[in-house]
Structures are given as C-alpha cells and as structure tokens.
Write a structure and sequence with these properties.
This protein is an alpha+beta fold. 45% of the residues lie in helices and 16% in strands. InterPro entries: GNAT_C, NAT_N.
C-alpha cells in the first residue's frame, strides 16, 4: 500500500501527512529500522527517540509499518474496514500530540505494537486485544471470590476516542467480538469509565453510566490519574486549576475539590447477561 493512500484512509490531517512525507528516510535506513522493530519494538522506539523532532519521525515509521501490515490483513482475510478502523488510532493520537505538544507526530508510541502485531482490533465502537494475563486477576463476582490466573488467555477491552460512547453501539461491538473470538475467554475492561463513583457525578441516562451497565464490576482501584487526564486533558496537583467547559468537567472538578478521588473499575463482560 502507498503511504499517501494510507494517510487518506485513516483521515490523517493533510499538514501532518505532508510533513511526514517530506522526511528524508532512505530505503536503507527504513529497512534497518524495520528489522529492529520486528526484533524489539521498544528498542526501535528508543532509537527513534534519539532524533530531533522524534514525534514526527515516529508517525512516519508507524504509518509505513502499518502499510506493511495491510498485506497481512488481506492474507488472513480480515475485513478491510477493520484495518482502517483499527489504524485510525494513529490519527487520534496525532491529534492528541498536536494538542499536547504543539506539533504533529506520535508521542504515545508504546501503544502501537498491539496494532502492528495484530493482537488488537477495532470492531465497531470498541477495541479488543488478545493477550494472556500478566498477573493473577482477582475480584468479587456475584458475591464470590473470582480469580483469573496469570497466563490465562483473555480479551482486553479498550475504548478508543473519537465517537460518542453509545451503549447500543458497544453492544454491537460485543456481538461482533463474540462471533469472531468466541466466548471462552474472559472479556475484561480496566478503565476510569467503570469507576462506580462516577454515578455521583453523572445522570443515570448518561452514556458513561449506560456503558457501565454492560459490565459486572469485579474490583476498583485508585491507581493512576487516567480519569483526570481524560476528563481535563491534563493532571494538576491542585484541582482548582482545572477547566469547566463541559458538564463532566464541572462535576468532576467539584468532586475533586471536595477532597474525593477518581479511580478505576475492573469489569467483566458476561455474554448473554
């Protein structure tokens, strides 16, 4: 696939595509870095980070690697729409890079090995990642202790940005996933969107609360600051500095100003329930 066609297919901003396409990447350099990427993705990332303006270089390489991945999709008879939907993540993260750093490129580069190694696919509204649990996953399910041992094959659910989180759209995604992956593996989601105390901030009919209804909550934690990053686009030590442009921002800021914290929820999707 031609790089220009790929950029068009994922809806990459013209300015970003033009800047990326103007980079002086020789075939020798590309081949050398592609081999490193195939051997050790994170070693490849470390090498690119040494470049000045590394974010635009990262964008260029990820897009070219994605073009190579297109052939694998076709060989496996995976629907072309799934390819475009999955790799549109590059556009979203390029937009985030422009917002956060004032430049086109990719800063969240550690995320994309999943797309390139074909372990993550976007099926409709949601993304589904095939992996093995890297630790024992525990919680309470229907009043009883529940455990998924380390090494168990699972499906990790991600919620990509870009579209409203409509419950009916998510239900269709699960239908696709269950048809494609089956129902033997546990479908798990660890996200701030599943934090139960969001019910104190939002109305029952909000998209986030309706999304929570798709899952059975296994556990909660206060690790990280994902909620604040996603809601406000930044993390501040003093919540008084957060903006209040949306209803969620206003409610979350008030919640935090009262000394409360926003955490995460671990949920399991149980087909047929």
């Amino acid at each position: 696939m031609e790089l220009k066609d790929f950029c068009k297919g994922i809806g990459l901003m013209e300015e970003a595509a033009d800047k990326m396409l103007s980079l002086p990447i020789s075939e020798e350099e590309y081949t050398r870095n592609r081999e490193l990427y195939r051997q050790d993705y994170f070693a490849f990332c470390d090498r690119i980070k040494e470049k000045e303006d590394f974010r635009i270089w990262m964008l260029a390489y990820l897009c070219r690697f994605a073009c190579d991945t297109y052939d694998v999709y076709m060989e496996r008879n995976i629907e072309e729409k799934i390819f475009w939907d999955t790799f549109r993540d590059i556009t979203y993260w390029c937009e985030n890079c422009l917002r956060d750093y004032g430049e086109y490129g990719i800063n969240e580069y550690g995320w994309f090995w999943r797309h390139l190694k074909l372990t993550l696919f976007r099926l409709g509204r949601l993304e589904f990642e095939l992996l093995e649990a890297d630790h024992d996953i525990t919680g309470i399910l229907e009043g009883k202790a529940y455990k998924i041992p380390k090494g168990t094959p699972i499906i990790n659910i991600h919620i990509p940005q870009g579209d409203p989180l409509v419950k009916e759209d998510c239900e269709k995604s699960f239908q696709q996933a269950c048809t494609w992956f089956g129902t033997e593996r546990p479908y798990l989601c660890h996200s701030w969107l599943l934090y139960p105390k969001l019910r104190e901030l939002l109305k029952p009919e909000s998209n986030i609360i309706r999304f929570q209804e798709l899952f059975t909550l296994l556990d909660t934690d206060m690790e990280g600051t994902e909620a604040e990053q996603r809601i406000f686009g930044e993390v501040l030590s003093d919540p008084a500095g957060y903006s209040e442009k949306t209803g969620l921002q206003k409610a979350a800021k008030k919640f935090l100003m009262e000394g409360k914290k926003l955490g995460n929820g671990l949920g399991i999707y149980l087909p047929g329930r």
